[in-house]
Amino acid sequence: MTQTIRVLMVDDNRLDVEVVRVMLRQYPLARFELASLESTEDCLATLEGQRFDLLLLDQHMPGEDGLSFLNRIKGRSGVPPIIMLTGEGDERLAAEAMRLGAYDYFPKRSINSTVLARAVHQALEKFQLDQQLENTETVIFTLAAAVEAKDPTTGQHLHRMTSYAVSLGRAVSLDPHDLMMLKYGAILHDIGKVGVSEAILRKPGALTEDEWEEIRQHPVIGERICAHLRFSREVAPMIRHHHERWDGAGYVDGLSGERIPYLARIIGLVDSYDAMSSDRPYRRALPKEEIVRQLDDGAGKQWDPELTAVLVKLLSEGHLRPVDDSSHEVPGLSEQKLAAVP
After folding, report:
1. In whole numbers, what is the pLDDT of the chain averaged over residues?
2. Nearest 10 degrees: CA dihedral of 301, 307, 313, 314?
3. How far apart, in whole angstroms, are the C-alpha atoms of residue 221 and residue 147?
4. Cβ(280)–Cβ(153) under 8 Å?
5. Residues 156, 157, 163, 166: what is their CA dihedral angle, to the nearest 10 degrees?
6. Do 294 and 181 lie in a common domain?
7. What is the domain-level CATH number for residue 72?
8. Domain for residue 140, yes or no?
């Protein structure tokens, strides 16, 4: 049975719409249904009211242009893959369209029925792959919260880690993208503990050397678990290296100083701060004065001295505390699904 692909074209030039309609009809391997709008004004309402597999978007239209529309709907769920069409061959326009989420870009005058139909199929395949990746990411983020639940000593650790990491990241002027990656790293840094025996995680007394060796493998396991995430290249170093030390005495790779990835240094520092500032079965949270003393002593030994100074300043000024920060939502995480992670 021939596949039917429903396409919505937003273009004020009726002749161009009919040209595209004819092109799509000429493609023998699929059946296309083309609907059209003359502006973006009713586009979202149309997409919400009907199912479309693809959106063909013109750049130059009355009112809102194509790039402005892309920027307005960036990150919005329920929007089908988008191919940008324009009468120009401007590579800068193409690059901006792709940055804002378009799956492809074509100057109208340079396409034919085969090229356009193939581009539609490729956009749909990439969109379906992205949806599969998002489902994978949801599972992995859910797993991170489940791993936290295995360890009764940490209580709301992911919530606090996320808040502390973002606070420190903002204080050192990280850009929004790096803040997002830092937040992901904070949530996923201990996911490798899924491979650590629950008996070890729950053990009230001192660990044996063999048990410590198993604990030390969790960054490697976590790196492997997250290897296929879309953002693994940026998050994996935080997972693998958050237990490195500035003096090189940490694990897994014994990195030292600036060889430790910058975001991993932030994760390692706030991880240590959370351990000091929260109640544990074997002791109460340390008083702020003692935390500051230990941070000062460890600056340049365990932690990056410049980052540690910033953290101490935030702590001294009362700016380091868990907060409800919803400015960077994480795929697959919600209050309903994961009570431990906002």
Report:
1. 81
2. -120
3. 13
4. yes
5. -160
6. yes
7. 3.40.50.2300
8. no
Residue 52 has pLDDT above 90, yes or no: no
Q: Tell me: do 26 and 98 sit in the same domain.
A: yes
Q: Phi and psi dihedrals of 32, rounded to 5?
A: -110, 135
Distance CA 233, CA 181 (A): 10
Question: pLDDT of 4-33, one tens digit each?
Answer: 788 899 999 888 888 888 888 877 767 888
Q: Give me the sign of the Cα torsion angle 235, 72, 55, 333.
A: positive
From the candidates 74, 193, 301, 337, give the one annotated as an active-site residue. Answer: 193
DSSP 268-318: HHHHHHHHHHS-BTTBPPPPHHHHHHHHHHHBTTTB-HHHHHHHHHHHHTT
Question: Any idea which residue has 């799956």 for tokens?
Answer: 103
| For residues 107-116, average pLDDT | 66
Give the whole-angstrom CA distance, residue 99 versus residue 95.
Answer: 6
The CATH code of the domain that includes 206 is 1.10.3210.10
pLDDT at 121 over 60: yes
Q: Is 74 a catalytic residue?
A: no
* Residue ending a domain, choose from 76, 97, 129: 129
Q: What is the CA angle 149-304-253, rounded to 5?
A: 65
Distances from the Cα of 329 to the Cαs of 66, 171, 187, in angstroms? 25, 20, 12
Give yes or no: residues 120 and 197 share one domain. no
Task: Give the predicted TM-score (pTM) of the model.
Answer: 0.58
